[in-house]
Write a structure and sequence with these properties.
The complex is a heterodimer. Chain A is of the alpha/beta class. Helices cover 34% and strands 22% of the residues of chain A. Chain B contains twelve helices and no strands. Classes of the chains: A alpha/beta, B mainly alpha.
């Protein structure tokens, strides 16, 4: 213990008293405790994420990483400690104020959560819904600017030519890229991604991660992404946080994630999951 | 568990299965007994039926065949049949207009999108609305359209309009039930995704619920169109318009060849609507 506690690197360490703090920290948690009923799944986490960082949270299943993500957009309440996301405490928001808060956060799900029968256009447009007046939304009537935004997002994820296809015609990787486009049109400050590639084969998975990283860079979006593939985390993260049993056991850049750190993250669980054995992964 | 125990519990002739079978048979036997069903009566009486269809040889034109195809009454029957189709169509539109919005309040999942609170107040409100809409659906559905037609005839007089109102109201009850079943079966995932973008509830329903149920709604509505058409051919018996008025008239005055003509028209029209709706359904998946 203690060996892999937060590294004081320039990337993520911001002194509390720094004047730039308000605008520069997207997320800050202090002693954060999350749980269901009497069971705690996150047991006191300190985490600060500056604007524009691509943070990957690694950990075995049951380590609390999904709960952590869910708490960040106010889907589950905070049991203890302090949490601030985009300068607000998500767990006290309800109704209208929660809606307004969530507009600034894109969410990418493991199983895409698209409507298969609906064209790509409308699935992406659904990310714009808070900005579309109700009568227009009922008619699926978009303005020229909204069409531009949708096409721009589809260009970023490389699926401009599929705009009129139904989503159930797309492959898994393409569906996840559509989900990323849906998040981009929201114009979010933060994207939360919960195991975005675990339902995908290796090649599509890399396509999705590349798309996500490029989109985040192009628009300056902060990303918090849960993964269980260590190699993928290494390739795409600016910073990796390792969770084990609800506690942070590693925090630092991918370059210092060594065998000891991996062992600490996956302590008490089955073997850490490498990317599916694929000649390309070792070549890359 | 050992083999004998497993065999006992899964054997097709185990006591519980035999009990269910015997119980079912007992219910059917009681039904047969108390309704006075009798095979011998059917066999003995079949001659009478044939005679009825053939007609009384002493009275000219009292049989059902050949159908009366003289152009003047045929044109009238065709127009009445057309009116019946129009009645069924308007009744369907009316019932969808009532049932479509109400069905979102008769489904627990959409009620939770519309009124999301977790406090006892919101829970109570949800079950109150759910109960009221279902009460409405049960009432309109379980009272037969003929009864509704009699009520509406007394309100607005003879003609197709009371028929349309009666069919529309009765069918709206059926459709609320059917639509709500479809709505409760939609996948929650897109709903979650849209809730996470901060979209308001009507928009979530528009983008995540309605697209999922469209083929089902179209299919159920078309099924009800066929059913409404069949009902509309009978509604005229109460004076509520359509071909049924003529059918009732001809039956009562023993103009049986005209009855046959009308029945043939009904069968052909129902078959035609059936084909058209099958075609529409196949395109709306």
């Amino acid at each position: 213990m203690g060996m892999f506690l937060p590294m004081e690197t320039a990337i993520h360490h911001m002194p509390r008293e720094a004047p730039a703090r308000e605008s520069n920290l997207v997320l800050s948690a202090k002693g954060l405790v999350l749980g269901y009923g009497k069971r705690d799944v996150v047991r006191g986490i300190d985490l600060e994420v500056p604007r524009g960082q691509f943070l990957v949270v690694l950990g075995p299943s049951g380590s609390g990483k999904t709960s952590l993500l869910m708490s960040l957009n106010g889907s589950i309440p905070v049991k203890g400690g302090r949490l601030e996301v985009l300068e607000q405490n998500p767990s006290v928001l309800v109704g209208r104020s929660l809606e307004v808060f969530r507009r600034r956060i894109g969410f990418i799900f493991q199983s895409f959560h698209l409507v298969g029968r609906l064209a790509v256009l409308h699935n992406v447009a659904s990310g714009l819904l808070p900005r579309i007046p109700l009568p227009m939304a009922m008619l699926r009537w978009y303005s020229r600017e909204q069409y531009d935004r949708i096409l721009e997002a589809l260009r970023v994820v490389g699926l401009e030519d599929r705009v009129l296809d139904r989503c159930d015609r797309l492959s898994g990787g393409q569906k996840q890229r559509i989900a990323i486009a849906r998040a981009i049109v929201q114009d979010p400050s933060l994207i939360l991604a919960d195991e975005p590639i675990s339902a995908l084969d290796h090649r599509s998975a890399r396509g999705v991660m590349e798309t996500l990283r490029n989109a985040a860079r192009e628009f300056g979006i902060t990303v918090v992404c849960n993964l269980h593939h260590i190699d993928t985390a290494r390739d795409y993260a600016d910073r990796i946080v390792g969770l084990n049993d609800g506690r942070i056991v590693f925090d630092g850049p991918p370059s210092i994630l060594d065998e000891t750190a991996i062992a600490a993250i996956y302590r008490g669980s089955r073997e850490p999951e490498q990317s599916p054995s694929d000649p390309e992964s070792s070549a890359a | 568990m050992d083999r004998e125990q497993l065999r006992k519990r899964t054997h097709p002739l185990r006591p519980s299965n035999l009990g269910i079978a015997l119980g079912g048979l007992a219910v059917l036997a009681a039904c047969w007994q108390q309704t006075g069903m009798s095979v011998s009566d059917i066999l003995a009486g079949s001659g009478n039926m044939l005679e009825y269809v053939r007609g009384n040889p002493n009275i000219a034109d009292s049989g059902f065949f050949p159908p009366n195809l003289a152009p003047v009454p045929l044109g009238r029957y065709l127009m009445a049949m057309l009116e019946t189709v129009e009645m069924a169509l308007l009744a369907l539109v009316l019932s969808v207009l009532i049932a479509f919005p109400l069905s979102f309040f008769a489904s627990r999942n959409t009620l939770e999108i519309i009124f999301p609170g977790r406090s006892p107040f919101w829970r109570g409100l949800r079950s109150a609305i759910y109960g009221m809409v279902n009460l409405f659906a049960n009432m309109t559905r379980s009272i037969n359209e003929i009864i509704w037609a009699l009520l509406f005839v007394s309100a607005v007089g003879l003609g197709p309009m009371p028929g349309i109102l009666a069919l529309g109201l009765h069918t709206s009850g059926v459709l609320i039930k059917l639509f709500a079943e479809g709505i409760e079966g939609v996948s929650r995932e897109p709903i979650e995704a849209l809730a996470a973008t901060g979209a308001a509830s009507p928009k979530i329903i528009r983008y995540a619920v309605i697209p999922q149920i469209t083929p089902y709604l179209v299919s159920m509505s078309l099924y009800r169109l066929e059913s409404d058409l069949r009902s509309a051919t009978i509604l005229g018996f109460t004076g509520a318009g359509g071909v049924g008025m003529l059918l009732f008239d001809k039956l009562r005055s023993y103009e049986n060849r005209d009855v046959t003509t009308i029945l043939i028209l009904i069968v052909l029209t129902v078959a035609l609507i059936d084909r058209v709706s099958a075609w529409i359904r196949s395109r709306a998946s």
